[in-house]
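Whether sequence alone determines local backbone shape is best considered at the level of individual chains. We regard such an encoding as a compact summary of how the chain folds. The sequence in question and its structure tokens are set out directly beneath this paragraph.
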Amino acid sequence: MTKTIKVALAGAGAFGLKHLDAIKLIDGVEAISLVGRDLDKTKEAAAQYGVGHVATDLTESLKVPGLDAVILATPTQMHAAQALECLKAGKHVQVEIPLADALKDAEAVAAMQKQTGLVAMVGHTRRFNPSHQYVRQRILKDEFHIKQMDVQTYFFRRTNMNALGQPRSWTDHLLWHHAAHTVDLFAYQARSPIVKANALQGPIHPTLGIAMDMSIQLKAENGAICTLSLSFNNEGPLGTFFRYIGDTATYIARYDDLYTGKDEKIDVSKVAVSMNGIELQDREFFAAIREKREPNASVAQVLPCYRVLADLEKRMG
């Protein structure tokens, strides 16, 4: 009989709950501890999902008997330090995107993973969305080659609110969080490293202390280019929209859904066992633990993305 993988989830916010939803659908995995900033709200979520242990401190959760792995859906600024703590405690770890908001911290996690040999994965969900997997399969079959990607990442966040409309305890970031999705996906889908990157940012918000608008250009070694526009000032439509322009087709990806350039919907239901990118991401994490292998979106695989982000940050001053 296959051993049940016992996992702790740190971060009981909007995204953390998506992981708990996913875990319920995956055989042989059990969430046994939930870590949250607000104890009462964390207890409420734990009761809803049948999680037996609740804590406000990750260190306490890491001591729960039988714990195998941790998923971190905590504020960006905590990711690297908490990932290091999990690895040092001998636990496999999946860190929600971004791995870090500084290159030295991302490199420290990569070094610790190499030292421990544990599974360390980052939540670069675009690698797992069925829409992007469909395009990837055509690329791997040599049926489609990217000439250009045009990406829009648009939200309305002039106040510090999360996806559920609740106040956040931390500030999100266009470069280190939202641009990370596209920078990684572009290199992954182009199957070529990024060799040139330019960026511009708009004014810094007087309260949030971050740039609310950003424009990024990327070029891969094989000649493919990418243009990325990001905003926290956009009132709609909200989300991230990817246009793949290639030699044999044009595709428009909207999260898990995919369309042709003529806006005809493509059936991607047979691409993977689920239409939910977060669930597919979590399935890969647990499969890698069971099979004792490197996962897709491992820390080592996504590290080049964070090198590009660090370079862009310097260029924007």
